[in-house]
Amino acid sequence: MLEETDGTTVLWDANAIEVVDDHTLRLNLKEPQIAIPEHLFHYPLLILDPEEKGVFGVGSNGTGPYELVEHTVGQRAVLKKRSDGSYWGADKGYLDEVVIVDLGNATDASMAALASGQVDLVYEIDASQVQILDSMPNVQLFEALTAQTGVARTQIDKKPFDDPKVRKAMRLAVDTKELLKIGNLGQGEAAEHHHVAPVHPEYAKLPWMNRDIEAAKKLLVEAGHPDGIDIEITAKPDPGWELRTVQTMAEQMRPAGIRVKINVLPSAQFWDVWNKVPFGFTSWGHRPLGVMVLGLAYRTGVPWNESNFTDPAFDELLAQADATLNVNDRREVMKKLEELMQERGPIIQPLWRSTHTAGSNRLYGFTLHPSLYINFNQIGIAQS
Q: What is the pTM of this model?
């Protein structure tokens, strides 16, 4: 619906957004796109009152059951239930007030706060903490199988990653089932190097891509690297599963002659260069449809295409998938996209994460959303 013109984003047509009546808009798209509802629900598309000029904060106009009454970045936020009856939904909310405290990456502090009853819910926990929290009295665990992942992505316009044989050799050098065991402690599913998850409705099951060191070596020789390659991957230390995965991946690649140096940057520095380094490990959030992340990360020219991947056949197939409503027909197109990614794509993908969190036994009505959204109007606290 949007086009870039001289650095300015504009509607592709004056009638792209059509006002039908006071409560109805019709979107007239330039190209078919089945994921419009999911895109509108996803976090990058925060919808704000135009009069607030793109700034969200205390007092912002909203349509939810709670309103933001206090917000200090890096410290806390306070939400209060709307008392004027303006919320339109059936679930008005059980809680009068929600206080969100930012403890940063202090996971021990989060667990201590939960164990002592200072908080009733932790946003997310690492897989390494599950067993500890499971042994605590008055604590309940929550789990969701998701399309959250991390990819070791190459930039295909940088040597030696400009050769698809090198990229495929790197995929063949790793054992994703073992990476899942070590990286996310077995919580989730092993990945298949194409960024389409088993939880996606259009996921197509392919023959498993096993680790094959000899095949990886052969591809490196064909690519002109008989003595192997020396490369550097940029990663960050937290959350813990990311660095565990990167370290294990580097160890697995060494027998194939792929010698990987790990450059660990603090998170704040990492996000300054995440899309600039030739080889990096990037975490990607859950998307409900497989076409969404492929369009965000690998379509030619899109802003989040950190691998600089460009492939006309990929773009054509993805456009076809975007326009295919029937999920079985879309799965046939997705199969071709997955095979293309395994053959010449830019990523080595280790795993799909099961995410976890924990709350007090007083908490009821909470379920862990795969995108870690929290519907506060569905949560209650039992009185002791």
A: 0.88
φ, ψ dihedrals at 355, nearest 5°: -100, 155
257-286 residue pLDDT tens: 999 999 999 999 999 999 999 999 999 999
The values of phi and psi at residue 363, to 5°, are: -80, 135
203-220 mean pLDDT: 98
**Residues 15-60 pLDDT 10s:** 899 999 998 999 999 889 999 999 888 888 888 888 888 888 998 8
Three state DSSP letters for the chain: CEEEECCEEEECCCCCEEEEECCEEEECCCCCCCCHHHHHHCHHHCCCCHHHCCCCCCCCCCCCCEEEEEEECCCEEEEEECCCCCCCCCCCCCCCEEEEECCCCCHHHHHHHHHCCCCCECCCECHHHHHHHHCCCCEEEEEEEEEEEEEEEECCCCCCCCCHHHHHHHHHCCCHHHHHHHHCCCCEEECCCCCCCCCCCCCCCCCCCCCCHHHHHHHHHHCCCCCCEEEEEEECCCCHHHHHHHHHHHHHHHHHCEEEEEEECCHHHHHHHCCCCCEEEEEECCCCCHHHHHHHHCCCCCCCCCCCCCCHHHHHHHHHHHCCCCHHHHHHHHHHHHHHHHHHCCEECCEEEEEEEEEECCEECCCCCCCCCCCHHHCEECCC
Instruction: Write out pLDDT tens, residues 143-185.
Output: 999 999 999 999 999 999 999 999 999 999 999 999 999 999 9
- The reported pLDDT for the residue numbered 295 is 96
149 and 353 Cβ atoms separated by less than 8 Å: yes
Alpha carbon separation from 179 to 187, 240, 260 (Å, rounded):
11, 13, 16
Beta pairing partners, 5: 8
Residue with tokens 């909310």: 93
Instruction: Say if residues 131 and 266 touch (Cβ distance below 8 Å).
Output: no
The closest alpha carbon to 48, from 59, 61, 58, belongs to 61
- Confidence tier at 61 by pLDDT (50, 70, 90): confident
pLDDT value, residue 44: 82
* Residue 155 CB burial class (10 angstroms; 0-12, 13-18, ≥19): buried
